[in-house]
Design brief:
heterodimer; A: Rossmann fold; two-stranded antiparallel ribbon; 11 helices; about 40% helix; B: Alpha-Beta Plaits; two-stranded antiparallel sheet; binds thiamine diphosphate
């Protein structure tokens, strides 16, 4: 294609996709290819499309996404490790008109924060939890997480997770789905265009539920990669995730409108 | 039949060279540079610009949100 034709296409009136202004211009602190960036961006796109970003408060976790407040251009508070659902509870109860969400990794949500997660879910706090499950503690150097797969190597299970000694991976998403306080539960991924679009619809539904029903917790898991922790290239890690993570953590809706749809 | 021509603009110095966009493109438009950017990463660019239809698949999966997509209807 000739240069002048290209410049004819690259023109504001032909714009079809551009990073949302709800993502700041700060360079993401995530490793190349890490799903955290995509999960951030689609969450912000949803808040932009729903027009609620000025009335939203997000809670950042401890983990690689500890700096989420540097990247998400909405009001944010950073919580102590695992305590995001407790902080979100306080904020939502003080300001019920605010849209409140937490953004947490699997070490944060399913290890140190298990009590906060389960009790916020059981109380049916009217918040959205976005749970990025990459099967490892990314930030601290790839230690075993509750979600690390059987046989999977990590820096603290160098010979692979032995379920007889270390227990089985915790399917906390299926666990919270059983609680009556939880309105919707879904598991998504963000490594392909189709998955990103589906995950975005799921996140949108979760926020719509918060706005519409004013009670009940909406829970979105995103199965993601940690190519650094897994010691793979980004593209290979996504393939490995499809082959190994998805059979254990199958994608799809688990609970819709208070009813379990998929066990 | 209406046809679409597309084009992407990569924010070169923000690209981390992860190559996730390459496989997401259904028309093999994207490749990696031989040079590196300010951070030392190879960056993505249109190796086959004439094949781009502006579907935005690459931009949708780019973890760093560095791709802007344009699409123009070309009458035939
Ligand atoms: C109270 C406390 N205990 C332990 C740590 C160390 N620490 C920081 S991040 C982290 C794990 C984070 O893993 P995960 O939630 O899976 O997030 P990821 O980094 O993989 O996105 C741990 C144990 C801490 N910061 N605070
Ligand atoms: S260490 Fe893992 S989770 Fe953390 S930014 Fe890198 S790839 Fe993402
Ligand atoms: S997906 Fe984004 S960061 Fe990765 S190579 Fe493509 S443009 Fe660069």
């Amino acid at each position: 294609m000739k240069e002048e034709v290209l410049s004819d296409i690259i023109n504001v009136e032909n714009l079809v996709y551009k990073k949302t202004p709800l993502m700041t211009d700060n360079i993401l602190s995530y490793c190349p290819g890490c799903g955290h960036g995509t999960a951030h961006r689609i969450t912000m796109e949803v808040l932009e499309e729903l027009g609620v970003w000025k009335d939203t408060i997000g809670i950042a976790p401890v983990g690689c996404s500890v700096l989420a407040y540097e990247f998400m251009n909405v009001d944010m508070q950073q919580a102590a490790h695992g305590r995001a659902p407790a902080l979100a509870t306080g904020i939502k109860r003080c300001w019920p008109h605010k849209v409140v969400f937490t953004y947490q990794g699997d070490g944060d949500l399913a290890a140190i924060g298990t009590a906060e997660t389960i009790h916020a879910c059981n109380r049916g706090e009217n918040i959205v939890i976005i749970f990025v499950n990459n099967g490892i503690y990314g930030m601290t150097g790839g230690q075993m997480a509750p979600t690390t797969l059987p046989g999977m190597k990590s820096s603290t299970s160098p010979y692979g997770r032995d379920v007889h000694i270390m227990g089985n991976p915790l399917k906390i998403t299926e666990l919270v789905a059983e609680l009556p306080g939880v309105r919707s539960v879904t598991r998504q991924a963000v490594h392909t265009p189709g998955n990103v679009r589906k995950a975005k619809r799921a996140i949108r539904k979760a926020f719509e539920n918060q706005l519409k029903y004013k009670e009940g917790l909406n829970f979105v898991e995103i199965v993601s990669n940690c190519n650094s922790g897994w010691k793979m290239t980004p593209v290979h890690s996504n393939k490995w995730m499809e082959e190994n993570m998805f059979p254990y953590f199958p994608l799809g809706d688990i609970k819709v409108d208070g009813e379990i749809v998929n066990k | 039949m209406a046809k679409f021509k597309g084009a992407i603009v990569v924010d070169i110095d923000r690209c981390k060279g992860c190559e996730v966009c390459i496989g997401a493109c259904p028309h093999d438009v994207i490749g990696m540079s031989s040079e590196v950017n300010i951070k030392g990463y190879k960056y993505s660019y249109m190796v086959n610009p004439e094949s781009c239809v502006g579907c935005a698949n690459c931009a949708v999966v780019c973890p760093d949100g560095v791709i802007t997509v344009y699409r123009k209807r070309i009458e035939q």
